Amino acid sequence: MAAAAAASASSVASSSLVPKKTFSFAPLHASLPVPKFLNGSGRRPSSSSSLRKTGWGSVLVAPSGRKAVVCSSSSSSSSLPLPAALLFDCDGVLVDTEKDGHRISFNETFAERELGVSWDVQLYGELLKIGGGKERMTAYFDKTGWPVKAPKTEEERKEFIASLHKRKTELFMALIEKKLLPLRPGVERLIDEALAKGVKVAVCSTSNEKAVAAIVSFLLGPDKADKITIFAGDVVPRKKPDPAIYLLAAETLGVDPSSCVVVEDSAIGLSAAKAAGMTCIVTKSGYTAEENFVTADAVFDCIGDPPEVRFDLTFCANLLQKQYVS
């Protein structure tokens, strides 16, 4: 399997404990430029608009109740040029891993080290506004105070965080190997369609490369895994919402960013994709359903399998065409 190598990670400091109710992280993507939203009417919807599926495809439903067809895979022209590459986020897109996968593995690691730390479902949802597991732990300890067993110097704390993350990844991979966390609906179908038509496929994630590789290999199988390039972990120095990982993917795959379609599930991932100049479809996940996706090119609850297919490769080609003519 093709996989990219690593670069550097996070910084560390300390503070004192604060009550959980006051614990909050601001989104890191607020300062990024907001690209134009493209839909079937060529207009940008309000933040309260939503995309709903009908028998004809996806429909934009505005607060006024007026509807505008965004795109329909059944009515699209098969002669449209396909995307040069289909780029998937991992957690929340390939597998809904966060609540019952990564969170559980973090907590098991904390318990093993007797750190006196446990992340509940609501708190972990706040922490997901920070891209990357090592960065997530560092920000949490900076905010709430470092455990008594943690070292005192910055360099030692970086090593401490790295060791926690390594153990957390081992525990997470055990869950994946047991296939306790299934692929989301439509993921394998869309990947199969892309590979069959010569579209390059990659996974671009802030998660550890070994964990992402395990998901791809164990859940999609080794034959597909050999055809999928992985960009993950510390392969870039700045993680999402920075566009670095998507720009690296385009450069490595030898494709123009404007010819790529990204499938994301979070606002920080969407910001990264749009800042890279790419078309982005959002498939909402358990933790991200209420996030603001106004800059997305389309939003769905999932990719979908028959008879509930939400979109296919032709739909992706239609979105690219709308970008070119707008």
Automatic annotation (TrEMBL):
Keywords: Hydrolase, Metal-binding. It comes from the Eukaryota. InterPro entries: CbbY-like, HAD-like_sf, HAD-SF_hydro_IA, HAD_sf, PGP-like_dom2. One of its GO terms (molecular function) is metal ion binding. Pfam families: Hydrolase. NCBIfam families: HAD-SF-IA-v3 (TIGR01509). Belongs to the HAD-like hydrolase superfamily. DOG/GPP family. This is (wild Malaysian banana) hypothetical protein.
